[in-house]
Design goal:
With about 425 residues, this protein is α/β, with parallel strands linked by helices. The chain has two domains: about 100 residues, Urease, subunit C, domain 1 (Roll), CATH 2.30.40.10; about 280 residues, TIM Barrel. Strands 1, 2, 3, 4, 5, 17, 18 and 19 form an eight-stranded mixed beta sheet that branches. Strand 12, helix 5 and strand 13 form a beta-alpha-beta unit. Helix 4 runs parallel beside helix 5. The longest helix is centred in the last third of the chain and has 24 residues. It is globular. Keywords: Hydrolase. InterPro entries: Amidohydro-rel, Metal-dep_hydrolase_composite, Metal_Hydrolase, Metallo-dep_Hydrolase, OTAase-like. This is Amidohydrolase. Pfam families: Amidohydro_1.
Length: about 425
């Protein structure tokens, strides 16, 4: 088993608000075995002298879509599985080079891609996925335009469920439970539902609440029985509140959060994964990239309230995670989300959003997003102090001297 010793590190463990100087960390295989202020000696170990630089956990992007190869949901479907997979390999490789050692795919990711990453067929971060997103007919998971008639085949002859590459249409308790069980059967780490209208879908207004209470509670119950959780796509405050009230653990986006709803979310201990960068980029580049006018209008409406929503979350003490939601070629802007959050949050708050908070949300506390004995060996050596200057992490990996993922050296500069 390979051994690595990181010596003389200024250590940020992902959980605290400060760094410890002159620390040493022993990695054996894929795990951290020892964290100590005293010198560590291990036979056959390779020693990396950090030289007083910052050693921190690998970053977590808690909202990606690896297979979303275009900003048009129709094109994603039309280009086919091979094209989507090639895009995923490129996007995930970029994420790892930027220091994201874990990503959470919130719609479309599957066992095949997770296995390819685990087996080293492609290089990328640790990969957790929800499988296909669950949506009601006419909801945010629909890719059919207003003039189109139903055209998808059923999953089986006994069910009315229809599906695309990224989502499942399921209506009523029976179909919602069946679709949830099917995604969990295929290895989904959690389940995502569409709890409100969205930007990229063609027919639903963004203010629209989606799924009935009984449908949401049925899905949540299936997740609880599997010892996992449900998350919900929500933009408006009304959708956020009802989804949290009905048992959803996490909210994706939460863009139009108001103060009252933020207080409610915080009191319930739910999590939110804001995704500012996708909205900024769609507002700036959507028209040039062929984003339909009706979708462009929704993007602009969501972006207009996004920063204010963050301020409400911060004031209420909501547990906020880092996420990006970038589509197609926009994946290159992943690190800019850090810059956008700096308008509202401090450097240490953003660092927690990148590490320990999403780990806790994903039910992986103590395994990822931290430097502690027994955790996975996902580590970064930063040339500088990100607790004082978080922009060091927003430079597409330029200030990362070392990237360690699962005990494997991805990058190392002496």
């Amino acid at each position: 088993m390979a051994r690595l010793i990181f010596r003389n590190a200024r250590l940020f463990d992902g959980r605290s608000d400060r760094c410890e100087s002159a620390m040493n960390v022993l990695v054996e295989g894929d795990r951290i075995q020892q964290v100590s202020s005293a010198p560590i000696i291990a036979d056959g170990a390779t020693v990396i002298d950090v030289g007083g630089r910052t050693l921190m956990p690998g970053m977590i992007d808690a909202h990606v879509h690896a297979f979303f190869s275009d900003i048009s949901v129709q094109k994603v479907e039309q280009f086919g599985e091979s094209y989507r997979t090639a895009h995923a390999a490129r996007m995930l490789g970029h994420a790892l080079k930027c220091g994201f050692t874990t990503v959470r795919d919130t719609g479309g990711g599957n066992y095949g891609l997770a296995r390819a990453l685990a087996d080293g067929l492609i290089q990328g971060p640790r990969f957790f996925y929800s499988g296909k997103v669950l949506s009601m007919t006419g909801g945010h998971g629909e890719i059919r335009d207003i003039w189109e008639r139903p055209r998808y085949e059923s999953i089986c002859s006994c069910a009315g469920t229809v599906f695309s590459a990224l989502g499942v249409i399921a209506d009523g308790i029976y179909d919602c439970v069946k679709a949830t069980r099917e995604e969990l059967r295929q290895g989904a780490h959690f389940i995502k539902i569409m709890g409100s209208g969205g930007v990229a879908s063609p027919t639903d207004p963004i203010w629209m609440n989606q799924y009935r209470e009984d449908e949401i509670r049925a899905i949540v119950n299936e997740c609880v029985e599997r010892r996992t959780y449900a998350t919900a796509h929500c933009h408006p405050a009304a959708a956020v509140r009802r989804c949290v009230e009905f048992g959803v653990r996490c909210i994706e986006h939460g863009t139009l959060m108001d103060a009252e709803t933020a207080d409610f979310v915080a009191d319930r201990g739910a999590y939110v994964v804001p995704t500012l960068i996708i909205l900024e980029q769609l507002v700036e580049l959507g028209r040039k990239m062929g984003f339909p006018p009706q979708n462009q209008q929704k993007a602009e409406a969501a972006w207009s309230g996004a920063i204010e929503g963050l301020r409400h979350m911060r004031a209420a003490g909501v547990k906020v995670c880092f996420g990006t939601d970038l589509l197609g070629d926009l994946y290159k802007h992943q690190c800019r989300e850090i810059t956008l959050r700096s308008e509202v949050f401090t450097a240490i708050e953003i660092l927690h959003q990148l590490t320990s908070i999403p780990a806790e949300m994903m039910m992986l506390e103590g395994q990822i997003g931290c430097i502690s004995e027994g955790a996975f060996a996902d580590l970064l050596v930063v040339d500088g102090d990100p607790l004082q200057d978080v922009s060091l992490l927003a430079a597409d990996g330029a200030y990362l001297r070392t990237i360690l993922r699962n005990g494997e050296l991805i990058k190392h500069v002496d």
